[in-house]
Amino acid sequence: MDLYLAEGDRLRDAVNAYRAARSDVTPVSPSQPTPAPTKRKSYPLPPLDRPTELPGFPLRDTAGPDIPDYGSIGRLKAIRAAQAARLGKRAPMAPIGPSRLVKAREASIERGSQ
User: Where are the domains of the chain?
Assistant: First the structure.
């Protein structure tokens, strides 16, 4: 333990000599504790009730298109069928055939062969 303390004293003396050479007047002393850094603590700001406006960057319109409230899927299908009937078309009530995943290259080859 005495060796570690002696090595610490030698290091302290070397630091003091280096600081004296730089004309720094605060030598390191063993009785003086290292001062704690005086960093100011930052606190998070409360959230705003609106987005932050930046100059040169306009805010997007958040209203968006009006989305109808159909209430249920059955009512949606009935409305779609009525709209198609007015146009003289037939609206499918369910997807036609099973769904399958096809890679883009295979789809273009299948279209070319038909």
Answer: 1-31
